[in-house]
Amino acid sequence: MLAFDLCAIPQQTHNFEPENSPSVPSQLDIMKILFLCTANNSLSQRLHTVLATSHEVTVEYAISDEIMISAATLAQSDLIICPFLTTLVPRQLYEIWMTIIIHPGPPGDAGPSALDWVLMGDDGSIDNPRELLQTLDHGPDQPGRTHWGVTVLQAIETFDAGPVWAFEQFPIDIDGVGMTKSEMYRGPITRAAVTATLRAISRIEDAALSTAHDYAGAMKSYSGCGLAIHHMTYSAYLKPRPDFGRLSVTEQLPFQGGRTHHRPLLKAADRDFDVTRHTTLQISRRIRSADSQPGVLSAAFGYPLYVYGGLVDEAIGQSDQPPIDIGETKVLATRNSAVCVATCDGKALWITHIRRPKTKTDKALHPKVPAALGLMQLGILQVEQVHQLHAPLLSRWARSSVITFQEVWVDLTLDTNANRTAYLYFDFCNGAMSSEQCSHLIDAMNHILEQHTQDTPLRAIVLMGGSYFSNGIALNVIEASTDPAGESWMNINRINDVVSILLHDFPQRRILTVAAVRGNAAAGGVALAAACDFVIAGSDVVLNPAYRAVGLHARCKRKRWDLSTSYSRLALTWKRVSASTSPCSRASDIRRGHWKSNVNLSPASLAQTRAQELSEMSKDFWSARSTRYHSRRHDFVRKVKPEQTPLRFATHRRLVHSAQYDEEELDSFDDVEYYEALACRRAADTLRDEIRKELGSLVAKWAESTDDMARAHRRGSVALQSEKAMAHVALPGIERKTETVFSCYYQPVEAPLTPPESPFQERQTAVLST
Predict the structure, then answer these.
(1) Residue 311, beta-bridge partner list
(2) How buried is residue 393: exposed, middle or buried, by Cβ count under 10 Å (0-12/13-18/19+)?
(3) Residues in CB range of 769: below 8 A, 6 or more apart
(4) Is the C or the N end of the chain the one with fewer CB within 10 Å?
(5) Distance between CA atoms of residues 171 and 729, nearest Å
(6) How many angstroms separate the Cα of 425 from the Cα of each of 84, 221, 437, 445?
């Protein structure tokens, strides 16, 4: 039995548990479901984990109409679901297959910027969008909507206008602390989407069974898992009841948040702010409504930059530190690489991150980096100015009593049995932990260890994380570094130091370690949780130990995300505790980390294992094998649109492709000699292409030297390959056509910011030099 109160762990509110969620499916319940996604984001992953317990689910990226149509055919889909789709569904799909769209807005709301508008302050009272923008720009701050929702509707020719199969709603406070677009999407939007989608599927099944029309669902059979399974077909011509779009799933109430409208794309110019005339709340809403895509494009720092954060501060305005002027913007303070700026109403606001805008000559987006770091890279702030403006918290480790920017804090509690427990919070943007942030976390852990004395011992430490639990190393900071390989090495070592303290320092003092995974976790964040004695995860958390997908070494070849997963040598079984359960769990149900029971955790063994893992990681950063990591990191950070769906997601394509596995699922993925040979072949191909082009140019000049040869050349009797027609083989990420996933947001700016040398050119030079 645990000697401290696990039920005392603060929980994030989960108001929308799936209603009538399926358990063991009956023979008539099993569907073949195809996901069409612009990207496999947090909502699609969460919905996949829920539906895969009862149905066969496969995923296809919506790269083109042809690919989407072929996916539906190959998957032999009963139902197509679009959890996150920024393009129209082809007519050939929605006229044949029942296709449902998950729209992050209530019935009657439509448009690609649904969450952006509501977080900007749109309360539905103004119909005309231009008039609304004028009001939001010049009028007084209004409280905004009290509720928002998610609609599951059928795909038709017009965006977000099809028949509604289900909708769910939830209360919101658009000015609540931490209420950003991404936080709202991962939290209440995702939970409501799961609830509404499950109900929509149930209603579609009922409609197929009960309709009297000929098209309504003849029984068909297919073989699955060795069994002959009979189930309904689900026609695109099934009709939902009118009340499905009027009454929410859980409360059976009409939408409580006001009138809804079709709103257009919220453009960059519509969100821009002026610190000399916009209030703190106006600026905060604009920034938070654009998180994480695209950010607010603002010239507040003298150049057009996408800015992120938007946390209103209640303490810095009282500071006696003289500000630094950047144009009309007064920078009041810095803290942990964030900057605090003054606003016209005498208050202050934190900018946590910036991104340089893409220019017409850039092949991809720039990384999103901590604000102070990015401003120093651009020469807008100097290192000494950042140090000069540093504003420490009144108490370094206690939670601030007023709202301010704070990434790490410690809460020491004493329960009724006189057991002391330390709750360690670390709320890093997007869950990414840079070398500097890992050091900050280590300092907090050392502070906790100092509180453990013989007279006042600590019983346990509970890792609380933040809106994310942790997503491992900070790929954006690494990508922005002048030495990405070196920064990767520093970051992976520093996060290993964090894990080492959990595996050695706390157990040495008999302090229990608990990971309270309240938000999603990925990569090194999963390893961080696995290092603890107990792991308790929220009921809607998605765990994704995807090291290999980004090109990093991992001993296990994971073919998909899973809620019961393995990480390296730790065979990990996750205990999932629903926040709504009371009591949270029986003590007998919670076992101490049996995944570590057969693992040698002595200092010598830990050092040996760490050396082995880092020897492999060094190959990911510096050997010929590093091309896989550097190119994949580049594409992930810079939002490069994928060329195909990984086969571990698109299981419907495994049998028709000659390659049955993704590259990272093969043994050659870890073979340095394979990459050395590949680099040699590609370098030879590049050299051969250059020679052919040069020879072609010489032959063309010679042919033009005589009239006869020139006439023959014009008639085509001498066939010369033009430069455009030459075959070109490039390393991943080098001189290939790139397209941004969220291209509608990122339009090139006219005034470039002298961006660093293109990573494409750097990698090409490095390859050719080999």
Answers:
(1) 350
(2) middle
(3) none
(4) N
(5) 53
(6) 31, 52, 12, 11
Write out the H or E segment, with its range, that includes residue 164. strand 164-171
3-state secondary structure of 229: strand
610 φ/ψ angles, rounded to the nearest 5 degrees? -65, -40
As a whole number of angstroms, the distance between CA 358 and CA 305 comes to 10
Let me know how long the chain is.
770
Question: Is residue 153 a contact partner of residue 164, using CB atoms and an 8 Å limit?
Answer: yes
d(CA 482, CA 474): 15
Residue among 664, 652, 636 nearest 740 (CA): 636
Q: What residue has token string 């296990």?
A: 556
Paired residues of 232 in beta bridges? 219
Mean pLDDT per 10-residue run, the chain (770 residues)?
Answer: 49 42 49 94 94 94 95 93 94 94 95 94 95 91 94 91 96 94 95 97 90 48 43 81 96 96 90 93 95 90 94 78 91 95 93 94 93 96 94 91 95 90 97 97 97 94 96 96 97 96 95 95 94 91 88 64 32 33 38 77 92 93 93 94 92 77 86 86 86 84 64 42 33 55 62 41 38
Contact (CB, 8 A) for 300 and 309:
no
Q: Which residues pair with 36 in a beta bridge?
A: 60
632, 669 contact by CB (below 8 A): no
Q: Which of 95, 90, 46 is nearest to 69 (CA)?
A: 90
Q: How many angstroms separate the CA atoms of 482 and 245, rounded?
A: 53
Helical H segments across 454-555, by residue range: 475-480, 484-500, 506-508, 524-530
- What does the alpha-carbon distance between residue 464 and residue 517 come to, in Å, rounded to a whole number? 7
Helices (H), 188-312: 190-210, 268-271, 280-289
For the chain, the first-to-last Cα distance in angstroms comes to 60
Bond preceding residue 292 cis, omega within 30 of 0: yes
What pTM value is reported for the model?
0.84
Structure tokens at 408: 């790490």
Tokens 């490039």 -> residue: 730
